[in-house]
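Write out the bound-state structure for NAP.
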Amino acid sequence: MRKIVLLGSNGQVGWELQRSLSPLGNVVPCDRSKVDLTDLEALSTYLEHERPDVIVNAAAYNAVDLAESFEDEAQKINFDLVKVLAEYASLNNVWLVHYSTDYVFDGVAVLPYSEEDVPNPLSAYGRSKANGEYAVITSGCNYLLLRTSWIHSSRGSNFAKTILRLAETKDSFSVVDDQTGAPTSASLVADVTALCLYRIVNGTSSEDLSGVYHLVASGFASWYEYACYLVSEAIGLGVKLSCSELDIRAVSSSEYPTKAIRPKNSRLDNSKIQDVFNISIPDWKICVKRTLSDIARQG
Ligand SMILES: NC(=O)c1ccc[n+]([C@@H]2O[C@H](COP(=O)([O-])OP(=O)(O)OC[C@H]3O[C@@H](n4cnc5c(N)ncnc54)[C@H](OP(=O)(O)O)[C@@H]3O)[C@@H](O)[C@H]2O)c1
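---
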């Protein structure tokens, strides 16, 4: 049976990939308890032992603000590790699935970014992810490099959970209104990854499909609009909150300074992945509703 090694299997996307990839073969989950991914020798030994047919890398250093102070740490996971994976994939002729981010762009464009646009990251996190992309693209391996954005899930920490916590405990709060992007569920990323990989492992001339794709939900919102939607839908689901969407104040990025600078325009054009793989990607609100009901069910 085909063996798929899944790194970062306990993360938001990794957890969903354990489910979505399982019909494609023997999924071997790898979390921190199996290999510390900063230990590249241990990783090489692990790969030699497992001999995967496909590597899916959902591991990442995602602490965007912390990365400004610990850029070396971010580079270890987002670049050094990825370089080793890409070299292994190239040498052993195995497919590599890797994830990247809207934060590789500077966000000054007016239109959504396409796969042809050139990265120009504003932050240490963005630089480390852009370096990882470069390592994959130049390695000579067959790859799916999937850029995504604004991940939400009932698992782990994310904006959706932060907003619900704030709305439970505060009468009002502020959210940035001048950064736009697509809230995207971890399960959508995992499901679409499985659909793409199915085509690749079962098709002929699959190397033609190797490349960069934008895997984000359709539509877009500002963080403020997203927060308002979360709160009004949560109220509709019967979640007890201390405020409503009317109590959320829209502020500009300059009124809400963070260590890392974020792109104003985080919109990624997802038409390529829909066209090439003949799939349809739903609007962000559909997936946010599902995440909210999962969170509400967990209490
Ligand atoms: N989250 C977002 O909003 C977002 C946006 C755009 C792109 N992306 C990209 O999407 C992908 C998936 O993100 P995600 O949100 O699912 O990430 P996540 O929830 O933060 O999961 C990352 C995983 O990597 C693991 N990891 C980190 N350092 C490790 C180490 N030294 N050894 C072993 N495991 C290690 C973590 O393990 P522990 O749980 O043990 O720490 C965690 O399970 C990443 O490539 C990310 O850059 C995410």
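---
Residues 23 and 216 are 23 Å apart (CA to CA).
The two ends are 39 Å apart (CA to CA).
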